[in-house]
Write a structure and sequence with these properties.
- This protein is mainly beta.
- It has one domain (10-156): Porin, CATH 2.40.160.
- The protein is 8% helix and 57% strand.
- It has 2 helices and 10 strands.
- It has helices at 98-105, 131-135; strands at residues 10-20, 24-29, 32-45, 50-53, 59-64, 70-80, 85-96, 115-124, 138-144, 148-156.
- Strands 1, 2, 3, 4, 5, 6, 7, 8, 9 and 10 form a 10-stranded antiparallel beta sheet that branches.
Length: 157
């Protein structure tokens, strides 16, 4: 019996390009600065699924720390081209140098290689053919754009 464990592999599930609405700024709370950023639309494509993001059921409930680090509680609903619904919930962090975080806060376009934006992701669906998503361990790599955000979501195998 070998005690050697297999190295994890990543398989892309989809790439979501989402538009962002005007943030709702709740102000300073005990944990940091609370903002709710609506995801107002977008599309996703992947090897096995593709479709659109449903507005009105999608937002990022953020806490921004004093150093500019953003802690995300990102929840969005996707509809596949076949009509299946996916509820996606991610917990993540976006951090980098003070200069880069200031540029992001001003809404500038900053190359995603200049900061870290990662999430742990869970997907729920009632679609029998997509049940593997309910059981998957998923991570996302993300990048903030001037008026949007990109999430590339991977299955950890």
């Amino acid at each position: 019996m070998s005690t050697r464990l297999p190295a994890p592999r990543l398989t892309q599930v989809y790439r979501l390009e989402a538009a962002l609405g005007q943030p709702l700024d709740l102000g300073d709370i005990a944990q940091g600065h609370r903002r709710i950023v609506p995801l107002t639309g977008g599309t996703f494509t992947g090897p096995e699924i593709s479709g659109k993001l449903l507005p009105g059921a999608s937002a990022d409930w953020q806490i921004v720390l004093a150093d500019g680090t953003a802690l995300g509680d990102i929840r969005y609903t996707l509809q596949t081209d076949r009509g299946d619904l996916l509820y996606v919930q991610s917990r993540g962090v976006r951090h980098g140098s003070a200069e880069v975080l200031e540029r992001l806060a001003r809404g500038e376009d900053v190359d995603a290689s200049e900061y870290i934006f990662r999430t742990s992701t869970q997907i729920e669906t009632a679609a029998p053919g997509l049940d593997w998503l309910n059981k998957g361990v998923l991570i996302s790599v993300a990048g903030r754009q001037t008026a949007g955000v990109i999430y590339e979501t991977y299955l950890v195998e």
